[in-house]
Amino acid sequence: MIDREQIGIRIAALRKKAGWSQQTLAEKLGVSPQAVSKWESGKNLPDIDVFRELAWLFHMTMDSIVEGDLLFTQKSGQKALPPNVEALFPDEERRRLLQSFLPYCSDAELYSIAREISEGSLKLCVQAGITRIDAHSGGKAEERRASIPASILGENTLRETAPYFVKVLGEMMGNAEPGLRRISELLCCPQCREPLTLENRDENTISFHCKNDHSYNVTDGVVYFGSREIPGEQWSLFMKNYQDYLYEQHHPGNPRYQTGTIPCSEVRWQAIKQLRPRVILDMACGTCSGLKYDLQRINWPCLVIMADLSHRILKYNKRYFSEEMANPYVDIVCLACDCTRLPLRDGCIDMVVSNGGFESMQSKMMAGFREAYRVLKPGGHAVYNISIVEDHASENTAKWERLYRTLEDSYHLSEKLFDIREWESICAETGYVSTQTKKIYGELPAPEDDVFPFTNEVMQWMGEYLCISGK
What we know:
single chain; elongated
């Protein structure tokens, strides 16, 4: 007899192992996301032609999907637990339990389950019913229940029960990815500042709500707060599609920003590695051209929040960092929002990073800088690069400033050009108790003529410093 529930569990497991959302799988099969949701919940079965497509997509036989044979277990599982999961459990019994879940969970889901088990907030057991009939009292039955820890079950029993455990765990913990569950503790409504609560009907209908009925949907994997790019400065539109975005990601970029004895990206990574933050916010992240070098190297559990005005770019970020830059230690959440009014509670972030993000906010730069301070925990750090002039009194700086001021106002990325001492004063006025600075490279020589030489990236003539400001 065909077991719809088991088939649904196996389809969901294969999809998650491939790193696809229900929407993505639906697009590949030419069906609706609701159809995929109904298969995975056991309400419906795919048509025979769709079964063939599923088998082809997942490099499986149809029988292995329908029957859950050895091929399914071998090809959809892994030989070893992900390192971040294994690190949580020194004892072999609980590792064995989690090993049985491998064919049915993504690495992110498995880590979420493991973390709750290690924290003592989740216990798994099998309930056994025992009935004793007393013949001396007219056949009166006495019923008891025994609770058997799942970790001590035998291999065969674990193999048989694992799909049911995983299905119930998914229902209890919600179908939303772990990052969305984690950030629900940090979010607040940007309109009324009340806490936001995650509502997860199914994988295709996820949103956040406050008690005043303000609602924000998760669209294309991005929590969307209705933000729009600055009028006249919709920089993301030069990326017409995801292929343009990929070209930008793979392009080496302006060599000017790679100068210096030690590149800024390496100096920033050393600071992040030393501080080992558990929650990182990338302010006005754009395509995450800075943080992406750090994401590859993080080897501790970490939630990374990418915040930007552009929903389009964040949608591409979500796809790129899930498909091509996945790190089992890192959960990524994208917030399309105004970075001068973040939908985050006071003092909830361990580290704010910015790779030119503050400056990209243009006239709102200082408001964004103060907002970053607000959301940082006491003892937290802002790690960011800043464009700096050498010396306002020098002939070279004076000429650059004069040429820069001949540009249209729309090119001015901040109201004032700071030298490093002025910037340190800004940090102190904002409330930071300390700011360490490291010079990456200096100011370019001014041109001999009176024509400003750059038509874009107009701040590249300035020097660059990496700053670590402690709250």
